[in-house]
């Protein structure tokens, strides 16, 4: 238990990975956690484990979100749900663009729009946006649309602090690097191969590392806003510079 003034939290993308870890961690702190995702079976298992309240709703279901939030006071909103794709802008599809924008950015905007008025009325709240280092850095092999949506989440987080200035409402952006989750398995269609390629020879972050980062911000004293947190594996760095020779032609 803690002295946090927050009573309820809503976590999206809660059925597995980072989302499920956040549900566990916030539930341990004594906050009533509403877990939102599409996978009803996984949510029920998580509810049995943690006592969270499951909601099998897609973040793309605007009517479903509005119905859920009509009778729910949310003190902590954790915008965690997200998707990614392989490839870049030269070989993406209209469907991929729409899916990534819908889940990674539009849903974050819509949920924030629905939740913030209640926070303002109560003068109490905390919005936590899970973004990505892809929103801050360009690197070869990254999906252009994914990078763009995460950059939008970063911009939203910054602007929200201006919108909410003078109120007891905090905004935190947590920007992880590589985390060992099922996302990589979905990207290449084989979790065993993803584990071999991305994790077996590397010390990556685990979902609970991000959950602990979120808890640190949420459970911090009210006078303190952890506005931005970039969380990387110790053995991973970002940045760098590529320089093509005059005679070379990029693939």
Automatic annotation (TrEMBL):
Pfam family, one: adh_short
Oxidoreductase listed as a keyword: yes
Claim: Disulfide bond is one of the keywords in the record: no
Keyword list, A-Z: Oxidoreductase
Classification via InterPro entries: NAD(P)-bd_dom_sf, SDR_fam
GO molecular function, one term: oxidoreductase activity, acting on the CH-OH group of donors, NAD or NADP as acceptor
PANTHER family registered for this protein in UniProt: DEHYDROGENASE/REDUCTASE SDR FAMILY MEMBER 11, DEHYDROGENASE_REDUCTASE SDR FAMILY MEMBER 11
Entry's family note: Belongs to the short-chain dehydrogenases/reductases (SDR) family.
Protein name: Oxidoreductase
């Amino acid at each position: 238990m803690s002295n946090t003034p927050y009573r309820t939290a809503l976590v999206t993308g809660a059925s597995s990975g980072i989302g499920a870890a956040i549900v566990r961690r916030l539930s341990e702190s004594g906050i009533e956690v509403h877990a939102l995702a599409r996978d009803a079976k996984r949510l029920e298992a998580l509810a049995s484990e943690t006592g969270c309240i499951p909601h099998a709703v897609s973040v793309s279901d605007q009517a479903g979100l509005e119905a859920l939030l009509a009778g729910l006071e949310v003190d902590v909103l954790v915008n965690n749900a997200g998707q990614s794709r392989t490839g870049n802008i030269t070989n993406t599809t209209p469907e991929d663009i729409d899916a990534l924008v819908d889940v990674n950015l539009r849903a974050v905007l819509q949920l924030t729009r629905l939740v913030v008025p209640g926070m303002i009325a109560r003068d109490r709240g905390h919005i936590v946006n899970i973004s990505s280092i892809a929103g801050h850095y360009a690197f070869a092999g990254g999906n252009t649309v994914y990078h763009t949506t995460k950059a939008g989440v970063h911009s939203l987080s910054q602007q929200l602090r201006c919108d909410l200035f003078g109120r007891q409402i905090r905004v935190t952006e947590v920007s992880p690097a590589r985390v060992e989750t099922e996302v990589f398995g979905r990207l290449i269609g084989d979790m065993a191969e993803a584990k071999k390629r991305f994790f077996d020879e590397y010390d990556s972050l685990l979902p609970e590392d991000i959950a602990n980062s979120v808890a640190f911000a949420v459970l911090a004293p009210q006078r303190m806003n952890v506005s931005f947190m970039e969380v990387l594996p110790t053995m991973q760095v970002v940045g760098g510079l590529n320089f093509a020779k005059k005679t070379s032609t990029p693939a």
